[in-house]
């Protein structure tokens, strides 16, 4: 991977509102949400960053403001280098960001995933439905306050719900994350919870 | 054998045409040797399930090679893989569509207990939504393990009181 050295000054000249973003690998910029699409279009059309590698978001936890940052990763198939663009969502409670589907059709599923996992609405998206969790799931699993093991909810299908008479029981957390211990015999080293504070048999203390 | 009335006892002329058995034994024998699986392949275990059907392991030796992709024609659901909450209602619906009698094999750690996926997305064992007859350990299990499970299930079916169940059903 080569690094596009000229891109930093070019972006700074074209978009004075951007600030450089700390990054260990490729050039990265912070940009106000209102100018994010313009910057992406400039990078695509004028700088040759023609491929949207990834689109995701960061939750900086409920105490932080701005809480959500949307991140775009672009790749140039002519320069063979990457650039990262990050924009903070102005609203913390009901975060939104303009859609990039107009620039890259491939943004469609990435934005649906980001919406599904973090609840960021992409305004102007043609079909903003959940993609991994089922329709009607009330939570956003990658938000900081969401427990790793999930929250009890109704099963997605009302008819099946009636049949089996059990909602979704959240998975036992049992200490997670699950880690393998190195240097042990294989039978002992497999990933397991190190803490059994609560599990399927013992209810989670409230 | 010489008796006054040979018709009431053993008649060598019809030897071989009559077999005396219990109804349970006959029904169970039929069910045991024509187990038609519904392959509920959801993850990596499904690959092992394919291997079971292939020539090296050859599930046909047990009369169970007729994988039915229509639940109406199947009587043994093999849940091979991770059951997510999104998929769970579908698994249950296919189970409901299968004709009775029906049995379930939970293949592998994920189907049996959620496996390593202690997360918001994974059902912690398919027995939360459907009754399971045989659990297979392993991640994924070897094809032999699934064949063993099938034999265990056949052993279970052989011992069922199928006739009285039929009458009471």
TrEMBL record, chain A:
InterPro entries: NADH_DH_suC, NADH_quin_OxRdtase_su_C/D-like, NADH_UbQ_OxRdtase_30kDa_su, NADH_UbQ_OxRdtase_CS
Positions of transmembrane segments: none
Regions of compositional bias (Basic and acidic residues) in chain numbering: 189-206
PROSITE patterns found in the cross-reference section: COMPLEX1_30K
Membrane association type: Peripheral membrane protein
Places the protein is found: Cell membrane
GO molecular function, one term: quinone binding
Record-level GO cellular component terms: plasma membrane
Keywords: Cell membrane, Membrane, NAD, Oxidoreductase, Quinone, Translocase, Transport, Ubiquinone
EC number(s) per entry: 7.1.1.-
Family according to the record: Belongs to the complex I 30 kDa subunit family.
Record text on subunit structure and interactions: NDH-1 is composed of 14 different subunits. Subunits NuoB, C, D, E, F, and G constitute the peripheral sector of the complex.
Task performed by this protein: NDH-1 shuttles electrons from NADH, via FMN and iron-sulfur (Fe-S) centers, to quinones in the respiratory chain. The immediate electron acceptor for the enzyme in this species is believed to be ubiquinone. Couples the redox reaction to proton translocation (for every two electrons transferred, four hydrogen ions are translocated across the cytoplasmic membrane), and thus conserves the redox energy in a proton gradient.
PANTHER family: NADH DEHYDROGENASE [UBIQUINONE] IRON-SULFUR PROTEIN 3, MITOCHONDRIAL, NADH DEHYDROGENASE UBIQUINONE IRON-SULFUR PROTEIN 3
Name of the featured protein: NADH-quinone oxidoreductase subunit C
Native organism: Lacunisphaera limnophila
From TrEMBL, chain B:
Keywords per UniProt: 4Fe-4S, Cell membrane, Iron, Iron-sulfur, Membrane, Metal-binding, NAD, Oxidoreductase, Quinone, Translocase, Transport, Ubiquinone
Catalytic reaction annotation: a quinone + NADH + 5 H(+)(in) = a quinol + NAD(+) + 4 H(+)(out)
GO process terms (BP): aerobic respiration; electron transport coupled proton transport
Pfam families reported in the protein's UniProt record: Oxidored_q6
Subcellular localization: Cell membrane
Subunit (UniProt): NDH-1 is composed of 14 different subunits. Subunits NuoB, C, D, E, F, and G constitute the peripheral sector of the complex.
Protein name listed in UniProt: NADH-quinone oxidoreductase subunit B
Protein's organism: Lacunisphaera limnophila
